Queue: 2 jobs
Job 1
Amino acid sequence: MDLMLLAPEIVIALTGLAVLLIGLFLPTGSKKILGYLASLGVLVALGLTISSLGTEALVFYDTVSIDALSQFFKIVFLVVALLFTISGIKYTEGNSNTEEFFALGLFATIGMMFVASANDLMVLFVAFELASLATYALAGFEKNNAKSLEAAMKYFIIGSLSAALMLLGISYVYGATGTTSIPEVAANAGILASSPMGIVAVVLLIAGFGFKIALVPFHMWAPDTYQGSPSVVSALLAAGSKKMGIVAALKVFVVALIALQAEWQTAFAILAVITMTYGNVVALNQTSVKRMLAYSSLAQAGYITMAFVVLTPLALGGGIFYALSHGFMKAGAFIATAAVTYMVLSENKESPDPDHIDNFRGLGKRMPVTALCMTIFVFALAGIPLTAGYMSKFVLFSSTIQAGFAWLAVIAILNSAISLGYYAKIVKYMYFLPTDSEKVAEPYPYTVAMVVAAVGVLAIGFWSEPFIYWAMEAAKVLVGGM
Amino acid sequence: MMPILSMIVLIPLIFAALALLTKTKEQARAIALAGTVIVLLLTVYMYFNFDSTIADNQFKELVPWVESLGINYHLGVDGISMPLILLNAIVLPLLVLFTWNDDRKSPNKFYAFILATEGAVIGVFTALDFFLFYIFWELTLIPLFFMVSIWGGPNKHKAAIKFFIYTHVASLVMLLGIFGLYFAAWDMTGTPTLDIPTLIAQFQFIESGIAKDMIFLALLFGFIVKIPSFPFHSWLPDAYTEAPTAGSVLFVMLKIGGYGLFKIMLPMLPFTASPNLMITIMASLGSVSILYGAFLALSQKDLKRMVAYSSVSHMGYVTLGAAGLVSLSVSGAMFQQFSHGLIMSIMFMSCGIIKNVTGTRIINDLGGLAQKMPKLAVIMVLTFMASLGLPGLSGFIAEVSVLAGSFVNLPSYVMIALVAIVITAAYHLWALQRAMFGVYNEKLGTVTDINTYQTLSMGVIAILILYFGLNPSPVLEMMLTNSEQIVSLMAVMGV
Amino acid sequence: MIPIAFYLALAAILFSIGLYGLMTQRSGIRILMCVELMLNAANLNLVAFSSYNHDLTGQVFALFSIALAACEAAIGFAILMALYRMKDTISLDHINVLRW
Amino acid sequence: MAVGDFAFLIPVLPALAFVLTFFLGKKLPSGGAIIPIVAIATSFVISLLITLNLLANPEEVVSQSYSWFAMLNIGILVDPLAAVMLTMVTLVSLLIHIYSVGYMSHDKAPSRYFAETALFTASMLGLVLSDNILQLFICWELVGVCSYLLIGFWFEKPSAATAAKKAFLTTRVGDVMFLAGIIILFSDLFKIFNGTIPDGVYILRFDEIFAHIPDIAAMNANIFGMEVSHITLITLLFFGGAVGKSGQFPLHVWLPDAMEGPTTVSALIHAATMVTAGVYLVARTFPMFIAAPDSLMVVAYVGAFTAIFAATMGIVMNDLKRVLAYSTISQLGYMMLGLGVGAAIGAEAVGISLFHLINHAFFKALLFLCAGSVIHAVGTHDMRQLGGVAKVMPITAATMVAASLALAGIGIPGTSIGTSGFFSKDAIIENAYLFGDTTGAWIPYALSIVAALLTSLYIFRLLFMTFYGKPRTDYGGHESPGSMTVPLSILAVFALFFGGLTSKTFNTFVSETFVNNFVNMDIHELASIGGYHLASHGGHHEPLIILWMPLIVALAGFVIAFLIYGLKIVNMDSLVSRNNPIYKLLYNRYYQNAIFTDFFSVKVIYEGFAFAGRAIDRGFDWTVNWFSDLTLEAGESLRQFQTGAVQNYATAVITGVSLLVILIKVVMEVI
């Protein structure tokens, strides 16, 4: 078989190991280089993936499939990883464990990439756990920060719980169908559908993936973890591993368990509505920006989940496209928060909650670029036109109408109206509320990452044709199973 | 030929970006003036090359954008949009002149937002693709939102958020309607398209009457809120009152609600499942707005708030006239948008000036300003007369056309509106008498008359009000052409 | 031969015990153990099914998951250790700075 | 080329004068009065020539129309009816402008004054010239605004500002009715053409309207269960407009207050020209009224009632100008009555009424100018402080007497000896008799006779109190300058002799209007549409007493006034006192102010409706805010789920799982 097909994964893996080893021998002062190395690796992988767009193949005894879907999501993950590594350069400045940070990040990325291309429940589960484990550690990266540790702890416990649930679910699927290979499961799913295990398996799997996607009520960890863990990590979690959950769910439900469509469709319908409403409403009066973003990403997850309810090619394409845009928007927003946090901390080491919205007062004057990018991100999340957010909402919501789920579309629309409330609040703080503190120099790696993300958001929003095309291609892979 | 429409849409946006980069007030206002004047020149050029005898879109530009969804970059103007573009192009340079000597924080942003709004609004008027239309539609919100929340009055934040979310909800509902139309057409033709004329043409072929009415109502709601019409007006008084003077004027320039009514709603109206119901809805909303706004204005203590409510009342004529479905009433309603834009700009400018020189807008605290500010007094009297529908001024043409035209089909609604005419006169004169005439209120201290730039800008608009009052044809002709075409549709359907 | 249902029942019971512990226990260590319990219940399922289906995949899967469980334990303990260092307790009730 | 081609200059010149005076006035001597004077003089010459031309050959009616927008036009129409009005308006306006040079010499803003009067003249002429109802309405509104501006000329006086507002609003009520009439008319014609109007047809032109009177009369509206013909409806609404403009009951309340303006303004606008616009409107649209006899009845009754109603108040007023104001209202009532009797005598009524209108314009303008010159000299309005002014200001006094004789209508019936007022007023009263004779409605006649008595009573009372006897206070005083006395004398001549000279020709001349102007218009035919027949012409002879009655009552009035105010044989103090209910009622003007202004407009409209509306609006606002508050509350309570204890999180997950299983089960069962 042709290893070149897995070149991106291999590159990332090697980079990760290299970073880890080199890091051992470098003095803390000069560990900056690792960040650049990691970014370079991700960039190369990204290049390789994009260059291999359109190839279709099965490797490792048909347990790993390379197709439009996996390629698309790989790109999403690599982009997020890129933003992660770039902004990580600044974040890990002067930290003695820099290498672990980047290594873990890269390993998590590999996990996500393999989930994206998994063609076998076993591979899927293992890759899923790989990503989870790496991110558990990342969440608790600030060893001396109680919040960070608490975040990690909660993330870990709920994570492992859901892992157990997922495993149990998979075991039932395996038991009923006698195989773990996704296409074969799809072939034999009829047996499962007939047996009482069916519903249980479906629900258990939903719980397992719902934990990653952060669907209410499996979301409980998300706000705490996003708030507690370092902003850069939150970016990876919200933008990266959330999408991993989505792609996994897509593969397992839309492809493997299409026979039980009725069951999980209703389940997702309920969850989608609850999730988006809960997320938006609770986000309204949060004082911690990171927590607000966490709830907003709940809401966004709710929107994306609509794809599972509508299940038309356009809707699935829209959901996938939404995942891409959300990657950019959310990662960017969290990185902007990271920049602010950095600024606050550099002013006052002991600041209790550096991500409090009061720290955004007058940001427009203090950190113009950051403020501008943040504005772009939140407006994109709110779905203001000419941004990725609007484009993806347009496709997804319109597909909902097309499929006749008008009620769902109305709920979603009203939700995105509510969401304006807190997004506008951030903008208000940044531009309209006076501040006495003066302008500060903006940490450039953060700035670079934000600008990249912002450019991405605007590019997708304005020149969306190719992105939508690839999203549709990816959706085709799924509906092939239908 | 050159892509003139793209130019008048993009030039303001580009200049807005430039204005953002400037450092001083002088540079900012210079750039703003340059941008708006260029747009004015282009528009005038376009106006003179515009064929007002045909109802089709002209100066079309068509560039594919997102084929897989049938989205195109499609621009064009017709007799409905041309006058409104003209209105914006004329008023905005004057608005820049009006603010020429003001001192305010971060002028670069201020002028940037003025330009951005112009670009967005003209964009709405020229867009022939629903996607583009909606983009510009939403784009108009943002600069105005900033305008209110940066330079607004005491309750600016509340007003800004309220306005932003309220109108955003409306536009989202409108978006739902667009989706419905989009897919209904997609299912019928098999090819996705968001082209406005095409979709309007397809509307009649939708089988399900429910779907038709739902689509129609969703779109209607979006437009009605923007107009705004009773009972969806409650964002307006706060927004208009809290906004800075320039902001209020920009709000007045925001004629996209009524535009949508004429451009999109009326051509669909005869093909809805229950046209008469729709007409009843529009007519009653319109006539009630007229009366309701008048009464509310009468009860206001704050001059600017009074003007805001009078605006609700005046925009009622637009809805009523649109529902009238006689070429005279429809074109009168279009003309009302045009003349209302001119009149209200001066009204708000006057409010701003009075607030600046006296420090208050409470009508009872003012008094006898005419003695100290003769120039302002002359302009204000003229404008107030225009606003209360004095013949010979633009307001009258619009109102009489709407009333006379609508009476043919909707006599009882017109009678409601007629009652309002007296009330309208009452509050205008009351305000004039209290604020401008009578004994000068010494508590106001020493006040100075309007400066040259303000005189110039307000004067020019005032002259335009007079000119279009005496000779409306330059804009009314093209409006008539289009409204006759719309009405002919009605005739076909026997509505 | 013991019918499959027995295995499933056992696994279910084990799993439920784990769940119960997870919901009630305060000590981080115990919670960790409960998680292990649940994972192993799932493994039991896999193995049972694999022998029932005469197909090795299940057992391979079980091996993988055991390995993963080990990693989980490692990371879990690491996090708990760090917490203990900072707070001198692993009673999770007292660790709720992040909420609402 | 014919003089008619210059007709358009008649309104245009004063309009230009307005622009020039407005911008240059301040720099010129005496506020640039010369500009409007020259302009109006020219207009006067043109209109005079046109009139004479029409007299010579009546078919040379000037009629030009230009498309304005849609199916509407602007145009001019000078038929005899318009011609005489034009001549009168230009003449009076000219004289008053000349007079004003002296009168306004001490004012601080004469240029504004002359600009506004010029604008007024222009609009008034435009009104008269209109060849379509819409243009007439436009000018109608413009004169209203000019009167608003001129009443409030001294706007720093709060009373003036208030009076101006009141005048505008009260007339506005009438205007809205007028507008409503136009709108109904428009939609009727629109329906008659069923929506497709051929090019070159302007549907609101008078000839178009009159041509379609039968069709309009055929349409019926059901109002409060009553079947009303559209023609009646429209004419009544038009008359409503006239009621507002011409100060007929009950919309007359603004006219007395309008005296807050300069006296010259009162003379020009509120005596001679603008207030007669209402009469002119009815006269102009008379063919429609003929076809609607009910409307004509209303016109007659309202006119007669107003005549006596205002006269009663005129008796007790002590303010020089207010007396004249009420006299104006009363005389306008006569004119309306004159039109109303058209139900009996047809188009002739227009001639009679217009004749009185013209004469009234002369003598009433004269009265006001005399009053003005008195006020100018002595600086007070209050008659109780005057007396014996005749000695100080002989010319003024003489002219005043002439005017009063005209107003009282002194003259010898059957001959052509008598003042202008005599001929016109008696004609009206006689026809009122004829009206009663044919229709059996005698009340108008009775009222008009009594009103005639009161008229001479109050005017001679005014004369005696002001000019006769010895001064009650020591006002300084002197005869006014030539620029003021010359116009007075000229007007005096007209007041005395115009009627006598023209009484023969005038009526036929004006009454021809509809016959030879609007093609094949047979008044009788129209009347038959209205469902009745006009009294046969010539065949009616009133008994002699009827001819002499007006003179008798006029003289009676003079005698009473002389006895009371001249010889003081009756002590007024017993009558003129707060505890005399009748006097009190009259003096407080029947408490209309309390009823209309204080109660209706303030209490009901302002406090009632407006504040109710305000409450409603708060309701809407509250609803909107309520939604946002609700969501915020929900958020606040929902976030409490996030307790922070990880076990609860685990519990939530488990609960979620189990709930989902159940839910799905349920849903699957249902579906």
Note: Residues 313-347 of chain A form the longest helix (35 residues).
Job 2
Amino acid sequence: MWYDIPLMLLMAYGFGFLYYGLYRNITARVHGRFGPSLAQSFWDSIKLLTKETSTSFGWVFAAGVVIMAAGAVMTVLFIPYFTDTERFAGLSRYGNLIVVLYFMVLGPLGNALGVGSSGNPFGAMGVTRGLTRMIGLEMPFYIALIGLMIAHRSADIATIMAQQQGTIDLVAHPLLFVAAFISFAGFLGKSPFDVVGAPPEVYSGPAVEFGGKFLGLALSQSAIFSFAKLLLMVDLFWGGAADLWELIAKTFVLFLAAVLLGNVYGRFTTAQSVDLLLKVPTLIALLGLLRV
Amino acid sequence: MTYLYEQYDVQEKHPRLFAIRTEASTLIETLQEVTTHTEFVTLAQIACTDWIEEERFELTYLLTDRARSRNLMVKVPLPRTGGSLPSLAFRFPQAEVMERDLHEMYGIVFEGNTTLYDFVLEGWHDIPPMRREFDTLAYVREHYDFQRGRTDGKDVKVEQKRRREEAKKRKAEAQQQAQTPEGAPHGE
Amino acid sequence: MSEYEQSGFVPYDPQAEQQSLEAETEGIRNTQTLIEKAIRWFHARSMFVVAYGTGCGAIEMPPVFTSRYDIERLGVVGVATPRQADILIVSGYASLKTLRRIIRTYEQMSEPKYVIALGSCTINGGMYWDSYNTIKRLEDYIGVDMYVAGCMPRPEAIIEGFVKLQAAIRDNTLRPGYVRYRENLAGYKANQTKVLGERIAPEYEENYAGMELS
Amino acid sequence: MENRLVTIFHGPQHPGITGNMSVELDLLGETIHRARTHVGYLHRGFEKLIERRTVIQAFTIVCRICVPEPDPNEENFARAVEGLAGIEISERAQYIRVMVQEMSRLAAQLLWMGGQSGSIGLETVGQWSLYDRDLILDLFEQLTGGRVYHMYTYPGGVRRDLPEGFLRRLGELLDHLEKQLPRYDRTFFDNATLRKRAIGVGVIDPDEALANGYVGQALRGCGIRRDLRRDNPYLVYDRLEFDIPVFDGGDVYSRALVRRGEMRESIRILRQVIAQMPAEGAIMQKLPKHRKFTLPRDDIYVATESARGEFGYYMAGDGSEYIRRMQVKGPSLIHGFTLLESLLVGEELSNVALIMNSLGICPPEIER
């Protein structure tokens, strides 16, 4: 129906921020404190969007942030939310997994474009780290997804989802799932893979010059984007979700696992994280590929 | 230690703290000999005292021995104006920053030290602040305003004096009443 | 003519300040719409503090931000750069060299921005009233919104300062420092020039400039 | 070559810096080509202010010299004044001073653990350790009335006697900390990421360490057993038995392990102090009147083993009630310039915060 797409965007926005609030609360509990309210990240983004912008780096800087947001929005629009692809399927019937992967790369590239135009050395360093890390992250992720496509003889997310009604891929191809999950945890940008914006090192990297509206937009983008990734993982490995509650439950479990991983580990350096990602998950993914 | 005692007149300030004296001209030789022939190998601190009434600085090169258990002061007098000392950076790397500090705080020139530029102060053009003739209070009165905050413009000193006199008066009255028979209650 | 007025500082009259503040806030209260009220609420509810420990008070920042006195409950979090920040905490005395960086950090923050000054040293010099290298009253150089007294202020006091500031922003009973800074920029710049010299922003080349001198 | 270098300032406004200082880095990619330290953002001219104050007035500002652990400063000041004026303090006061020193050492180590874990993005440990540090600060508050600045260790003894049941509460706190330390071992010292990040980073050469006058963990981290509490004993440390942990890796991880051992030793010392402290005895010697408290024309150097190494004061009196000259030599002066500038060359930008935290560089004591 016509209001599906705005509803999908709203859901992505809301759930993204809800999960960020949950992340902050869970982290706070691990730290032994109360933590902020669940909606804190949402309030932060509203506050930032209503702040004045004091920077003037030209239109390329703004365009970069807009491209990031566009990449996130397109990613979430090309992923079907539920198993019955009549509702909340967005544009997924016009594009398959390849398109989604393409849009997932769009965000970091737009980020690089904008931050590079600001001329801040810390921002440039952060972008370089981000792109370097992306190599390590996408190798296992793509191998795992290729394995899925081969296994299901299809690149269409809806088809993959439909075919695993009997046994979900998490059981059928556990190695692929492990590989994809490790790189997914890296994609979320939590430690030990949070080299991109590491405040003690490159003082939050690409976001070093983001102030006011730009930072608000970047926050919303990351919220939507992380929800899109969760959605993709659920669709591909967990057989999608029949209704809203199942969707929430499944995405939250995945999110929780990724978050708790980050709470007990420090930060690797760029070289170490790429090294690790290129060795461990890639090998697992390749093994999984052989088993397919 | 025996070497020290036969070479210099050692003043024992403390069971583990000794002091010897030398001149600016022979400073390098003294330190070389002491560090080669005795246990005192490490330069721990360069302290400077400004004896303005005697028109001289007294620099104290504090050496520590290998066991870090005893200290030796090598005292060097230096005229307050126009004097200069050789830099020890070639022998002790840590001396570089200490000399840089003293140069900024006292204006002492250390020949051979290439880092004698701004250390903690930024573009300071007044007298080097640690010299005795530099009056920090006058400087503050000239540059800052530290006594603001009382908007009624009352002088605190005058007010304190007034209160003290009032208290004295009250005390005197209390004593008078105490002397008067079946007097009023003491004070109020 | 007092010593203070002769010294060329911009005169500061608390009563007039208070009156103008009340008049202004009354005016704003009557005219502000629901949207503006909502925006104020958001601004009060979420505060990003720039990570710059300028003085001893910075030693009480870790307890405030960690699990004993968890200030993230109030929506106060630390961020890395001034671009992202709303709050600048000047924690204690500011030496001249730091004042340059404080001013630069303060001017890099995007409005609305607020300044919380910790410790007696920022109010009237405190312990260092006769020190040649620390400024005595931060109010003269940047617009301060909240003072937390004490040497050093306890974490509870700092949290109290945050709560009061949030209430003031929410109820709009505050004439923000950045507005005063913008309106009275010439005066503030005059005060900064008086202690810092003509060049206020830090020039990092000066560390090399000294090398040729000696 | 030169035009490919990027010069950045790591600080003063930077989350990865220990205090208000800055390191100027010439970067080639992310590798450091040259490092130069800049300080002076915290200069208050203590040594000038102390020249204008009598002994008792100077005592109130001396603890501000090093913010993370003010007690070694008070101890140094008190011992220097006592040495110049020839004051002997009672045994009970000495035990109380040892207790204060070790408590502040524990607090400083816990604070360091927070910084070190934050420098590798492991916030959890920092949150826990700062909570435990706060419990120690609560005890300090009961003892002295101040959380951070105590103004307690006083020339001639200590300012106040112990409050009721203080030693019992201290013992309970030590039990709590002994329960906590294994937790820290599991989450921090044995953490895979810390090992991966810290082993082999920032290695110090032992001979250089002795010759250049490095102190504290920088020495004990590369296998040299030096500790003023043992080598140049002050107070009653010669009556207490404790070990000096030494690891000979010379890198960041060895320094961390040294600190881990020192926390256990501090707890051990505090337990002995609780057991041995005489219940009776004067805590304060009879001092001359404030205006009559004059120091002879003489000079002295006293040093205390702070949580980061030797902390020394040079003090000269001139026969008046004012101190003619007091010069502070903190561990950070040499560590922050000679050591740091040489260690950082060739390192990655990611390791700057790690190395600075492991050296425990504290700018206020560099510039006073």
Note: The first strand of chain B starts at residue 11 and ends at 14.
